[in-house]
Amino acid sequence: MRLSHKIVDHGINATFVNTEFIHAKLTASMAVKSEEKSPLRLVSIPDGLEPRDDQNDTPKLTENIQKVMPGHLKDLIEKINQSNQISCIIADPTVGWALEVAEKMGIKRAAVWPAGPGNLAFAFHITKLIEEGIIDNKGTPIENNLIWLSKDIPAWSSTVLPWSCPGDSKTQKIIFEFYAFKMNHYL
């Protein structure tokens, strides 16, 4: 959101796309009519879950998002392009499918990683962590040790990795596979 505002500050039109669920929370927290005054356009697209569905069910949410949102994003882009040509899509690599939609539509794209550098560093060191016996091929720590990826990044506990979800192996699998297989593709 901050990046979007910085872009708008430079006189560039920007549209911030979110899920309907998060969009409703975001707009509810804003001052009355501030959305109307903002040069940043806020829009939403469905995430594939029904209102009665649990938004904290990460496996179900992830599956639905990947099935439903790319098509809705494509439709939104086509609608916006009727009046104002989109020149670039900027997305967090956790929604890399948005970058894929941009590529298929011939739109420039950029991945922006808003999480800390330590989190990002783990994405590029998974193979090394497996080879050194720190984690298994599912991302589960073999022992409780400190991990130093470099002298410039503080040590991390092997039990608190970006994909760690103790007691929730299904969610951990989804997040670990994203880090291990998809992240490097988008960055």
- Strand composition percent: 5-15%
Radius of gyration: 19 Å
> Treating each run of at least 4 consecutive H or I residues as one helix, how many helices?
8
Report low-confidence residues grouped into runs of 5 or more: none
Can you tell me the number of structural domains? 2
Helix content: 40-55%
Would you give an account of this structure?
- The mean pLDDT is 85.
- It is globular and about 55 Å long.
- The protein folds into two domains: 2-111, Glycogen Phosphorylase B (Rossmann fold, 3-Layer(aba) Sandwich), CATH 3.40.50.2000; 117-186, no CATH class.
- It has 187 residues and is an alpha/beta fold.
- A hairpin with an 8-residue loop joins strand 5 (146-147) and strand 6 (156-157).
- The chain has eight helices and six strands; from the N terminus they run αβααβαβαβααββα.
- Helices cover 46% and strands 13% of the residues.
- The strands form three sheets. It has a two-stranded parallel ribbon with strand order 1-2. A two-stranded parallel sheet has the order 3-4.
What tags apply to this protein structure?
187 residues; Rossmann fold; two-stranded parallel sheet; 8 helices; 13% strand; globular
